[in-house]
Amino acid sequence: MDAFIRNVRVFGDGRRLCSSLSKRLADGKSVVGVYGADHAVYHALAEAKTGRTLASLKGSAGTGGIKEWKVPALLNHVRKKVVQARWNDIVSLDPHGLSSPRPTIAATMACMEIPELRDSLIPDGRVVNADQSVNCIKVAIEPVWDIPKLAKRLQVDEAVMRSHLAEWTLIDRLKDPDYDIFLPSIGGTTVYLFGDLQAIVDPKGKIAARPHDECNGSDVFGTDICTCRPYLVYAIQGAIERAQKGGCGIIAYFRKEGRAFGEVTKFRVYNLRRYQEGGDRPDMYFKMTEKIAGLVDARAQELMPDVFHWLGVKQIDELLSMSKDKHEAIVGAGINVVDRVSLPEEMVPKGAYVEISAKISSGYNNFQPRQSEEDKNRRELFTLECVRERCNKILSVGLDDGLKHFRVDMKRLEPTVSRVVHTMKRKYPNFDIPTHSRWRQFEAGDVDRISELNQRWTRYNVDSLERTRRLVDLTAISVLLDAGAGKDWHYTDHHGGEEVFKRSEGLAIASLDMFQACSFSSEAGSPQVDAAGLRQLGEDDLALAFQIRPDNPLIGLTGRYEMLQRLAKAMEANPQIFDNGEGVVRPGNLVDYVLREAHGQSSSVSIRVLWQAIMDGLQEVFPDSSGLHVGDAYTHYALHKKDSAPFHDVVPFHKLAQWLSYSLAEPFDQLGIRFVDSWLLTGLAEYRNGGLLVDMGMLAPKRPEEVFGKKLKVTDERVVEWRALTISLLDKLAVAIWDRLGESEQTMPMGRILEGGTWRAGREIAAEKRPGGPPPIEIDSTGDVF
Which of 371, 498, 528, 672 shows a CA-CA span of 20 to 30 A to 225? Predict the structure, then answer.
């Protein structure tokens, strides 16, 4: 007993955690039943065969000094006072079971692979890996029943309940009120947790959950008489997707086979249903169970919410269950349910319509509306992998001279490589090229303005984390304002010797000046970007700050302003990413979001974490010129095939989102966070890179009169083709540059090739060929794409 108290009495914060149930369990004097649940009899057989005593499994001995590893995230979670708020209400498990000498709860890290979900999940490097496996925590829980509290929960007389338990288990001691704790020989519960456990206790966190009762035939072997496995798979996907949005997904799997009547009874019911007069039909579904078992259901769903109480769940935003009994049990336990998510009808096996029809008739939620492949295919368009894959398909057609608008001349590859390498050497003789980022424009005029900011903030005792948040704020707002300015606009830097800057550099300095003037902040004197501050900003304020006059016109002012308002709205709609928990909604809180996913001493994290946060959190910010609700993505005839699935003829670019990703990597790098797979980012489909390819002859319009001298919209097929070919040919250029210089993707990644070579060379050759340096193909810019 002393050892038990030493082990579980106190956690790191000094609070006493040993419940009365745990004390009695360790004491053993008021306990009836044995550890091991439904495996206990096998322990007995093992002892009989080997002559050895499995004392530690019986709970009569400790673990022999073994220091067991426990999942830190879960252990820290259950130590929180807010999580333990309802532990006294738990009746069917020991909430302190993780810490007992003979644990009744154990957890481990796991990687899940579900065949039905292959190609349906979007890898993010955090929840879903590149190979579509899924990271999760799995928790095993053995049943521990507090008999007096159990009777109260079920609203039955305790003596009557004890009598029935004794009758069905042949354990007479269950009738003795001195025995409060029962270790029943039944199957336990396994819980699968996806995503951030903090979302469970965060008032703004979102939870998707499914309580699922075992059905071996369907869950494991795929038999089609019920919807159990389809719903389980659907719920797992919902839990994963909720986790990817910054929330937490919970699958609680209860061993209550055949409505807790067992498989033998269940199979007998199947036979009675099938071979009754008139065959299997919904109106007799429940009656057949009652004929065999005497009852419709024996699962005691009132016990099920204990698992959610143990995790500290107060609200389930998406209950992935149609069951009225489970819904009533959860709500009855004081857990709020926001939305019930039903199984889509198309996922019902052909042999399961009798079951599901009977359940819906009895009060279960109805089906989700039938869904097409559209949602899945639309989601795919937001992945980095899809950008490269679709562009490569268009290039493949182009290499066979099968495109309508452009001819690809790979003979011009080497001259283009030479031009790019020459540009690199001239600007960076030692090839110490920085990455392509908005920060380069902040250095216009050879002034390191970011260093000046950091030094100033350090003098004012701003810590490194807040400095990084501010830099993310600045970078994000400046990137979103960085569309083509037009050749007639300029910006005078009144804080830096009245130097005049044009194009990207001018936009960068203008946005920096606004940031330092706290124009994007709702807090006076606080240099940050927040939703409230953006809402206070007027279009006239933006025009004044950017020095716009009749003689100094800026292209796309309204488009830029509207994008800032969409940014405010998008951040407010995604508090799990952008809210600091105190109501301050800003891009800088991306830092905290990403830090939660950093791991190891190297503080490494997948670029997919940042990408997913940008695409989920800012999707409404980015332009949707095509009207397809897929962002910077457009249809192209070369991808269209007869009877092809929806969206398979769409090519995504997400130029602004990728430019933002490249740029945000710099402040994260200053904080010591390294994105390990940034190679997933592609070259940027914008007019400097694309213009280089046209000016160097790698791309030539087949009908120049239809391209040159025209102002083309971003949705125009000619522009879509030009941009797609640009992305794929940038990959070809990169490989050729690596070969020529003896470099590799690791030593000279795409971001450095863009900065030192293609983007810079594209600007230079444009200036050589055309007064003012406009690109060879003119885009009708609205200020939110180019």
Answer: 371
Active site residues: 297, 299
Cα separation, 391 vs 393, whole angstroms:
5
321 closest CA partner among 266, 220, 253: 253
Residue in the block written with tokens 């804080």: 495
Q: What is the pLDDT of residues 365-376, one digit of tens each?
A: 776 655 555 677
Q: How many CB atoms sit inside 10 A of residue 548's CB?
A: 17
Written as six digits, the tokens of 690 are 């694309």
Alpha helices (H) in 671-749, listed in sequence order: 687-695, 717-741
pLDDT in tens, 474-486: 999 999 988 777 8
Query: DSSP letter string over 217-246?
Result: HHHTT--SSSSHHHHHHHHHHHHHHHHHTT
Helix axes 759-769, 413-427, angle to 10 degrees: 100
Q: What is d(CA 197, CA 199) in angstroms, rounded to the nearest whole number?
A: 5
User: What are the angstrom distances between the C-alpha of 262 and each of 186, 226, 284?
Assistant: 11, 15, 20
**Rounded CA Rg of the chain:** 32
pTM of the complete model beyond 0.85 = no
Residue 30 CB coordination number (10 Å): 16
Cα separation, 71 vs 454, in Å, equals: 38
Residue/partner pairs of 214-223 with CB below 8 Å, 24 or more apart? 214/187, 214/253, 214/254, 214/255, 214/256, 214/257, 215/257, 215/258, 216/257, 216/263, 217/263, 223/351
Q: Which residues contact 489 (CB under 8 A, 6 or more apart)?
A: 502, 503, 506, 548, 552, 553, 554, 555
- What confidence tens digit (pLDDT) does each residue in 651-698 have? 999 998 999 999 999 999 988 888 888 889 999 998 899 999 999 999
Amino acid at 173: R
Residues 16, 84: Cα–Cα separation, whole Å: 12
**Three-class SS state of 311:** helix
85, 313 contact by CB (below 8 A): no
